[in-house]
Structures are given as C-alpha cells and as structure tokens.
Amino acid sequence: MKIPGIIAIMLFVIFTMPAGAGVTMSTGNATVSVTGETAVIPIRVDGFQDGLSGFNISIALSNPGVADIEALDFPAWAVLQESSETEPGSAWLKAVDLEETIGPGSTGVTLAFLTVRANSAGTTSLNTSVRQMSDDNGDSVDVYRVNGTFTCGIPGPEPATLTIPLQTGWNLVSTPRTLADGHRNASEVFGQVDTGSRSLFTYDASLRNWRQIKASDPIRPLDAIWIYSMSETAILLTFNGAATLSLQKDLPPGWNLVGCPDISQAPAHSALRSVSGNWTTAIGFNPLTQRYETSIVNGGSGSHTDEAPVYPGKGYWLFMRNPGILETIAG
Q1: What is the pTM of this model?
Q2: 46, 96, 178, 191: which has the highest count of C-beta atoms within 10 A?
C-alpha cells in the first residue's frame, strides 16, 4: 500500500532526525487515605533539546472542594523564584535558570513541587497551563501537557474515558483499554476529526506492510494509529467499563507500532515490562513539532533513559530483538 509521503519521510529519518523543540510537561498523581493528609506532587518536563532559560506556569484544580494547594516549592537550580499566594483552587509560579543547569538534552527536569492537602473524599485533576517557557536561545518552547490527579479516600474504579488532544498535522494515537459499544470503530472514534480527506493508517509488523483503517474497523487496545487533523481538536475514548483483564498483542522481531499499555503514564521500563527482555528502543512522536521524540533505550541512561515516561493515548515505534507479547497493565 502506498503511504502518505510525510509518514514515509518520517520513517526514513527515524534514526537521523533530531528531536524537535517541543517538550512534555507532566504532573504526578497521588492518593491519600483521609482528609487533612497531604501529598507532594512533582511537575516534571522531558525533552529540553536546547536547554531551559525560564518558565511561568499555572495550575488549577478541577474540583477544588476535594483539595487545596497548600505550598509551592522549587528545586535548587531555580532562582529568581516567584509564586502566587496559595489559593483554594489555583496557583502560578515562575523561575529562571541563571546557572544554565538545565542544558541541551536535559530530561526528567523537575520544575516545582506542589503540596496538596485533602479536604474531602473524591478526585480532582491537576490541570497545568503554560504562560511562558523559553530555551537557552530565548525561543519559546512548545509544551505537550499531561495532567495529574489527586485522590482522597479509597481509589475508585479506573476512569471511564480518556481525552486525547490532537494537534494540527499528523498524530500517533492509541487506546489502552477496550472501547465501549457505540464508541468502538474508526468512524465512531474519529468521525468528528477533519482529516483533510487523508486516510488513517496503522502498521502490520507481521506482514511488514501499512494498512489503511476503514470506517468500520474496530479500534483495538495496543494498536497505534496515524491520523491527520486539519486543526487542534480532541477525541474522547469511552471504555466499556468491564473488569480490566490483561489484553495482549503479539510483537514479531523488528519495528512494531504499538500503543501505551497503561491507563496512566509510567516509566518505559515499567509500562513495557511484559516484553522487558525483548525490546531495545521505543520512539514516540511529538505532534506539536511533527518530529520524532528522543529515543528511549532499554537499560539506557541520560537523554535515552528508560525512566522516561510513556503516555496513555499515545503510540510508539518499538523495536523487538526477539518476539514477545505486549500486555496491558491492569488498574
């Protein structure tokens, strides 16, 4: 099958193309048992290709009745720090890197620590937004945000839905769980996305061939799909709500196109533990920059560390030295 030219070019340069200037900013998750208890939650960024000169971000709780932001703390490298007074449901904070501690290629960088205090049983999202983030060249940094959650009380069931943001251009997406009836095939999941008449594609590693996704094709867990969007939008995945069982995908040797197997972000070595002895390299795609991200190497360190997170809803190229079976991670 003839594949879109831009994807063919992406594959051709998969090892030689430098990662783009976009980064991923993720807020951690925390669960406490009783009201009054606190948790310290980090905000981290991966993928500073040109270092960091400074940032100005804000955070808001989707359900401020559940928790308060009690304190904001910075790591040692952050100087000229400023932050808002802690408020019931929101805060802002900013700092600069005068000593150029966060240089080119830095990953796993902690921007701040939030101390969150539980007020009542329930769950709230920790939603971040970026007012400004600049690299060492003074250029603005594109930021892909992954929000965290704070839960007080016995954790509830897994979320029933997952929202995946789509950027203008190509996006590589997946579902970590089985989708509900009426929300399962390609037309039901992607029907509202203006693709500019471009087809959706996935890759069949067993046949080493591209496959065009038809409107009636089911969207299966652990499969990754290329979709083009004419504008920024989002898709909503609705899960079937059944008991979470382990789902599997056979992976032959060589390059495979796979979805994140976990409902929450997790270090690559943890999320891929079902094939831990068989995979060598994982490569994500940054839809903001339309470039591949820095590769994650099994057992790697530095900018290629396997501590780097993989994210639910995203797709990845995964190289297998031996065949294996990728399994979803039950909640």
Answers
A1: 0.64
A2: 46
